[in-house]
Amino acid sequence: xxxxxxxTTSPSSPTAGQELARAKQQVIPPELAxxxxxxxxLNLTDAARLIGVSQSHWYELLAQGLIGxxxxxxGRRKLYDADEVVAWWRAGCPSRETxxxxxxx
Length: 105
Description:
2 domains
């Protein structure tokens, strides 16, 4: 079990950034910290947050076939590949159909 980390300085103090970086290293081991600590798999809420939309808006877009990335099942959880979500965003958020055609090339 990882020890709890408390940051006692204010965000404006010069050492706050250093303490935050050290806290991240304790929570996410450096060898697992990819893309600045972004996990490999994102649940729906985190995928929506990464793109900058609400969870309910993500569900609406998903129902309309406008969310390109697909999920992977891990146990009972469905996770989006973080790299795919970012690539989909950078490609201009094409519809699922267009995105799947693009991925096959």
